[in-house]
Amino acid sequence: MSVQSARFDRLKQAFSAIPHSPLQRLELPLFEQCGVEVWCKRDDLIDPMLSGNKWRKLKYALLAAAKDNIHTLLSFGGAYSNHLHALAAAGARFGFATRAIVRGEASSASNATLSQCRQWGMQLTFVDRQTYRQRHDPAWLASLAEPGLMLLAEGGSGPLALDGVGELVAEVPFSPDLWVLPCASGGTLTGLLKVKRPDEKVLGIAVIKGGTALRDTVTNLWPGAACDPHWRIALEHHDGGYARFSSELWQWLQTVTMQTGLPLEPVYSGKALWGLCRELAAGRIQRGSRIVFVHTGGMQGLAGLKERGLC
After folding, report:
1. What three-state secondary structure class fits 20?
2. 258: how many CB neighbours lie within 10 A of its CB?
3. How far apart, in Å, are the Cα atoms of 88 and each of 3, 48, 123, 275?
4. Which of 149, 164, 225, 255 could anchor a disulfide with 59, C-beta 3.0 to 4.6 Å?
Protein backbone atom coordinates (compact mmCIF):
# COMPACT_ATOMS: atom_id res chain seq x y z
CA MET A 1 0.00 0.00 0.00
CA SER A 2 1.35 3.43 -0.94
CA VAL A 3 1.89 6.17 1.59
CA GLN A 4 -0.85 8.12 -0.18
CA SER A 5 -3.36 5.26 0.12
CA ALA A 6 -2.46 4.70 3.75
CA ARG A 7 -3.08 8.36 4.51
CA PHE A 8 -6.47 8.21 2.79
CA ASP A 9 -7.45 5.10 4.77
CA ARG A 10 -6.36 6.66 8.07
CA LEU A 11 -8.44 9.72 7.31
CA LYS A 12 -11.53 7.63 6.51
CA GLN A 13 -11.07 5.73 9.77
CA ALA A 14 -10.73 8.97 11.74
CA PHE A 15 -13.87 10.37 10.13
CA SER A 16 -15.84 7.25 11.05
CA ALA A 17 -15.25 8.06 14.73
CA ILE A 18 -17.00 11.43 14.44
CA PRO A 19 -20.56 10.83 15.66
CA HIS A 20 -23.86 11.70 14.03
CA SER A 21 -25.54 14.72 15.53
CA PRO A 22 -28.65 14.09 17.69
CA LEU A 23 -32.23 15.17 17.16
CA GLN A 24 -33.95 17.34 19.76
CA ARG A 25 -37.69 17.95 19.90
CA LEU A 26 -38.36 21.69 20.24
CA GLU A 27 -41.36 22.71 22.32
CA LEU A 28 -42.60 26.29 21.90
CA PRO A 29 -46.14 27.63 22.37
CA LEU A 30 -46.18 28.84 18.75
CA PHE A 31 -45.52 25.33 17.46
CA GLU A 32 -48.50 23.99 19.39
CA GLN A 33 -50.69 26.87 18.21
CA CYS A 34 -49.74 26.21 14.59
CA GLY A 35 -50.18 22.45 14.92
CA VAL A 36 -46.63 21.56 13.86
CA GLU A 37 -43.98 19.21 15.24
CA VAL A 38 -40.44 20.61 15.16
CA TRP A 39 -37.26 18.60 15.56
CA CYS A 40 -33.82 20.18 15.61
CA LYS A 41 -30.91 18.39 13.92
CA ARG A 42 -28.19 19.43 16.37
CA ASP A 43 -25.20 19.70 14.04
CA ASP A 44 -23.70 22.08 16.59
CA LEU A 45 -22.98 18.93 18.64
CA ILE A 46 -21.05 16.97 15.99
CA ASP A 47 -17.72 17.94 17.53
CA PRO A 48 -16.52 20.74 19.84
CA MET A 49 -14.28 22.24 17.13
CA LEU A 50 -15.58 20.68 13.89
CA SER A 51 -19.22 21.51 14.29
CA GLY A 52 -22.13 22.05 11.99
CA ASN A 53 -22.29 22.46 8.26
CA LYS A 54 -18.67 23.61 8.10
CA TRP A 55 -17.50 20.10 9.00
CA ARG A 56 -19.96 18.50 6.59
CA LYS A 57 -18.70 20.75 3.78
CA LEU A 58 -15.06 19.97 4.53
CA LYS A 59 -15.31 16.20 4.88
CA TYR A 60 -15.08 15.12 1.24
CA ALA A 61 -12.69 17.92 0.33
CA LEU A 62 -10.28 16.54 2.93
CA LEU A 63 -10.65 13.02 1.57
CA ALA A 64 -10.02 14.27 -1.97
CA ALA A 65 -6.96 16.15 -0.73
CA ALA A 66 -5.55 13.01 0.89
CA LYS A 67 -6.21 10.98 -2.25
CA ASP A 68 -4.47 13.58 -4.45
CA ASN A 69 -1.46 13.95 -2.14
CA ILE A 70 -2.39 17.52 -1.18
CA HIS A 71 -0.57 18.86 1.88
CA THR A 72 -1.91 22.46 2.11
CA LEU A 73 -5.45 23.85 2.12
CA LEU A 74 -6.10 27.51 1.29
CA SER A 75 -9.42 29.29 1.68
CA PHE A 76 -11.05 32.66 2.21
CA GLY A 77 -13.14 34.34 4.88
CA GLY A 78 -13.83 37.25 7.16
CA ALA A 79 -12.20 37.92 10.50
CA TYR A 80 -14.81 35.87 12.41
CA SER A 81 -15.32 33.10 9.83
CA ASN A 82 -16.77 29.82 11.09
CA HIS A 83 -15.39 28.18 7.95
CA LEU A 84 -11.80 29.27 8.58
CA HIS A 85 -12.11 28.20 12.22
CA ALA A 86 -13.28 24.72 11.20
CA LEU A 87 -10.65 24.47 8.44
CA ALA A 88 -7.83 25.35 10.84
CA ALA A 89 -9.12 22.80 13.36
CA ALA A 90 -9.39 20.10 10.69
CA GLY A 91 -5.92 20.84 9.39
CA ALA A 92 -4.37 20.53 12.85
CA ARG A 93 -6.26 17.31 13.61
CA PHE A 94 -5.77 15.52 10.30
CA GLY A 95 -2.33 16.66 9.24
CA PHE A 96 -2.86 19.40 6.65
CA ALA A 97 -1.17 22.79 6.58
CA THR A 98 -3.76 25.56 6.31
CA ARG A 99 -3.69 29.10 4.96
CA ALA A 100 -6.34 31.80 4.81
CA ILE A 101 -6.83 35.00 2.86
CA VAL A 102 -8.74 37.14 5.32
CA ARG A 103 -10.84 40.19 4.49
CA GLY A 104 -9.83 42.94 6.92
CA GLU A 105 -6.98 44.43 8.88
CA ALA A 106 -4.08 42.54 10.45
CA SER A 107 -5.20 43.87 13.84
CA SER A 108 -8.01 41.30 13.66
CA ALA A 109 -5.47 38.49 14.12
CA SER A 110 -5.88 38.79 17.90
CA ASN A 111 -9.65 38.22 17.95
CA ALA A 112 -11.05 35.02 19.45
CA THR A 113 -11.63 33.25 16.11
CA LEU A 114 -8.33 34.06 14.40
CA SER A 115 -6.28 33.60 17.56
CA GLN A 116 -7.54 30.03 17.70
CA CYS A 117 -6.83 29.57 13.97
CA ARG A 118 -3.24 30.72 14.49
CA GLN A 119 -2.83 28.38 17.46
CA TRP A 120 -3.81 25.55 15.13
CA GLY A 121 -1.09 26.62 12.71
CA MET A 122 -3.11 28.49 10.09
CA GLN A 123 -1.15 31.14 8.18
CA LEU A 124 -3.17 34.34 7.71
CA THR A 125 -2.85 36.88 4.90
CA PHE A 126 -4.95 40.03 5.29
CA VAL A 127 -6.28 41.88 2.24
CA ASP A 128 -8.50 44.87 1.64
CA ARG A 129 -12.05 44.53 0.35
CA GLN A 130 -11.10 45.33 -3.25
CA THR A 131 -8.52 42.54 -3.33
CA TYR A 132 -10.88 40.15 -1.55
CA ARG A 133 -13.49 40.60 -4.29
CA GLN A 134 -11.11 38.76 -6.64
CA ARG A 135 -11.77 35.47 -4.82
CA HIS A 136 -14.07 34.41 -7.68
CA ASP A 137 -11.73 35.59 -10.47
CA PRO A 138 -10.22 32.54 -12.25
CA ALA A 139 -7.06 34.44 -13.21
CA TRP A 140 -6.40 35.58 -9.64
CA LEU A 141 -7.11 32.12 -8.27
CA ALA A 142 -4.73 30.63 -10.83
CA SER A 143 -2.01 32.95 -9.53
CA LEU A 144 -2.43 31.38 -6.06
CA ALA A 145 -2.01 27.80 -7.30
CA GLU A 146 1.07 25.76 -6.43
CA PRO A 147 1.93 22.06 -6.26
CA GLY A 148 0.37 20.26 -3.29
CA LEU A 149 -2.14 23.03 -2.56
CA MET A 150 -5.94 22.83 -2.77
CA LEU A 151 -8.10 25.95 -2.99
CA LEU A 152 -11.42 25.83 -1.12
CA ALA A 153 -14.20 28.31 -1.81
CA GLU A 154 -15.32 30.86 0.76
CA GLY A 155 -17.61 29.15 3.26
CA GLY A 156 -16.54 25.75 1.96
CA SER A 157 -19.36 25.66 -0.59
CA GLY A 158 -18.58 23.75 -3.76
CA PRO A 159 -19.22 20.42 -5.49
CA LEU A 160 -17.20 18.45 -2.91
CA ALA A 161 -19.31 19.90 -0.11
CA LEU A 162 -22.64 18.57 -1.34
CA ASP A 163 -22.23 14.89 -0.44
CA GLY A 164 -21.10 15.72 3.09
CA VAL A 165 -24.10 17.95 3.68
CA GLY A 166 -26.43 15.40 2.13
CA GLU A 167 -25.45 12.78 4.70
CA LEU A 168 -27.61 14.49 7.31
CA VAL A 169 -30.74 13.27 5.49
CA ALA A 170 -29.99 9.59 6.17
CA GLU A 171 -29.25 10.44 9.81
CA VAL A 172 -32.88 11.47 10.42
CA PRO A 173 -34.97 8.33 11.10
CA PHE A 174 -38.14 9.65 9.48
CA SER A 175 -39.16 11.60 6.40
CA PRO A 176 -40.12 15.16 7.41
CA ASP A 177 -42.66 17.24 5.55
CA LEU A 178 -40.32 20.22 5.67
CA TRP A 179 -36.62 20.91 6.21
CA VAL A 180 -35.68 24.40 7.41
CA LEU A 181 -32.16 25.82 7.54
CA PRO A 182 -30.19 29.08 7.33
CA CYS A 183 -28.90 30.06 3.92
CA ALA A 184 -25.86 32.28 3.24
CA SER A 185 -23.61 30.85 0.52
CA GLY A 186 -26.15 28.24 -0.62
CA GLY A 187 -23.94 25.17 -0.21
CA THR A 188 -25.81 23.55 2.67
CA LEU A 189 -29.18 24.13 1.02
CA THR A 190 -27.89 22.62 -2.24
CA GLY A 191 -26.50 19.52 -0.55
CA LEU A 192 -29.80 18.92 1.20
CA LEU A 193 -31.81 19.40 -2.01
CA LYS A 194 -29.61 16.93 -3.87
CA VAL A 195 -30.30 14.08 -1.43
CA LYS A 196 -33.69 14.69 0.20
CA ARG A 197 -36.68 12.57 -0.81
CA PRO A 198 -38.74 13.87 -3.76
CA ASP A 199 -41.83 14.98 -1.81
CA GLU A 200 -39.98 16.58 1.10
CA LYS A 201 -40.05 20.37 1.05
CA VAL A 202 -37.14 22.62 1.94
CA LEU A 203 -37.23 26.19 3.22
CA GLY A 204 -34.00 28.16 3.25
CA ILE A 205 -33.99 31.25 5.46
CA ALA A 206 -31.67 33.81 3.85
CA VAL A 207 -29.48 35.39 6.53
CA ILE A 208 -28.06 37.91 4.08
CA LYS A 209 -29.63 41.03 2.63
CA GLY A 210 -30.33 41.03 -1.08
CA GLY A 211 -30.24 37.27 -1.41
CA THR A 212 -32.07 37.17 -4.74
CA ALA A 213 -29.05 35.56 -6.42
CA LEU A 214 -29.07 32.62 -4.00
CA ARG A 215 -31.45 30.58 -6.15
CA ASP A 216 -29.09 30.86 -9.12
CA THR A 217 -26.17 29.91 -6.88
CA VAL A 218 -28.01 26.76 -5.81
CA THR A 219 -28.96 25.71 -9.33
CA ASN A 220 -25.42 26.36 -10.55
CA LEU A 221 -24.03 24.09 -7.83
CA TRP A 222 -26.59 21.39 -8.64
CA PRO A 223 -28.71 21.87 -11.81
CA GLY A 224 -31.24 19.30 -10.61
CA ALA A 225 -32.57 21.86 -8.14
CA ALA A 226 -34.11 23.81 -11.02
CA CYS A 227 -36.51 20.91 -11.67
CA ASP A 228 -37.63 20.53 -8.05
CA PRO A 229 -40.71 22.62 -7.15
CA HIS A 230 -40.53 21.75 -3.45
CA TRP A 231 -38.12 24.38 -2.19
CA ARG A 232 -37.95 28.10 -1.69
CA ILE A 233 -35.74 30.73 -0.06
CA ALA A 234 -37.40 33.24 2.28
CA LEU A 235 -35.65 36.58 1.80
CA GLU A 236 -37.41 38.76 4.37
CA HIS A 237 -35.89 37.53 7.63
CA HIS A 238 -32.31 38.85 7.36
CA ASP A 239 -32.95 41.46 10.09
CA GLY A 240 -30.64 44.06 8.57
CA GLY A 241 -28.21 41.87 6.64
CA TYR A 242 -25.40 39.42 7.16
CA ALA A 243 -24.02 39.43 10.73
CA ARG A 244 -26.45 42.23 11.60
CA PHE A 245 -29.29 41.76 14.05
CA SER A 246 -31.66 43.78 16.17
CA SER A 247 -31.97 43.87 19.94
CA GLU A 248 -35.44 42.40 19.40
CA LEU A 249 -33.98 39.30 17.75
CA TRP A 250 -31.25 38.92 20.37
CA GLN A 251 -33.77 39.14 23.23
CA TRP A 252 -36.03 36.65 21.45
CA LEU A 253 -33.14 34.20 21.16
CA GLN A 254 -32.41 34.43 24.89
CA THR A 255 -36.03 33.56 25.62
CA VAL A 256 -36.04 30.62 23.21
CA THR A 257 -32.81 29.25 24.67
CA MET A 258 -34.31 29.39 28.16
CA GLN A 259 -37.49 27.65 26.97
CA THR A 260 -35.82 24.90 24.92
CA GLY A 261 -32.24 24.57 26.14
CA LEU A 262 -31.10 25.12 22.55
CA PRO A 263 -27.99 27.36 22.25
CA LEU A 264 -28.35 29.89 19.46
CA GLU A 265 -26.33 32.65 17.82
CA PRO A 266 -27.93 35.53 15.88
CA VAL A 267 -26.05 35.23 12.58
CA TYR A 268 -27.11 31.83 11.23
CA SER A 269 -29.25 29.32 13.13
CA GLY A 270 -30.78 31.81 15.54
CA LYS A 271 -31.89 34.05 12.68
CA ALA A 272 -33.19 31.01 10.78
CA LEU A 273 -35.27 29.78 13.71
CA TRP A 274 -36.66 33.28 14.09
CA GLY A 275 -37.52 33.20 10.38
CA LEU A 276 -39.24 29.83 10.76
CA CYS A 277 -41.40 31.21 13.57
CA ARG A 278 -42.31 34.26 11.51
CA GLU A 279 -43.25 31.99 8.58
CA LEU A 280 -45.47 29.96 10.92
CA ALA A 281 -47.12 33.05 12.37
CA ALA A 282 -47.84 34.28 8.84
CA GLY A 283 -49.56 31.00 7.98
CA ARG A 284 -47.11 30.07 5.24
CA ILE A 285 -46.42 26.57 6.59
CA GLN A 286 -49.09 23.89 6.48
CA ARG A 287 -50.70 22.85 9.75
CA GLY A 288 -49.80 19.32 10.79
CA SER A 289 -46.31 19.52 9.26
CA ARG A 290 -43.44 17.58 10.78
CA ILE A 291 -40.42 19.86 10.49
CA VAL A 292 -36.70 19.26 10.84
CA PHE A 293 -34.78 22.44 11.62
CA VAL A 294 -31.04 22.17 10.92
CA HIS A 295 -28.83 23.86 13.50
CA THR A 296 -25.72 24.54 11.41
CA GLY A 297 -23.36 25.22 14.31
CA GLY A 298 -21.20 28.33 14.37
CA MET A 299 -21.52 28.90 18.10
CA GLN A 300 -17.84 29.93 18.27
CA GLY A 301 -18.88 33.15 16.53
CA LEU A 302 -20.58 34.36 19.70
CA ALA A 303 -17.19 35.14 21.22
CA GLY A 304 -16.48 37.57 18.40
CA LEU A 305 -19.85 39.25 18.76
CA LYS A 306 -19.25 39.69 22.47
CA GLU A 307 -15.73 41.06 21.82
CA ARG A 308 -17.30 43.77 19.67
CA GLY A 309 -20.01 44.48 22.23
CA LEU A 310 -22.78 43.41 19.87
CA CYS A 311 -24.45 41.01 22.29
Report:
1. coil
2. 9
3. 23, 13, 9, 31
4. 164
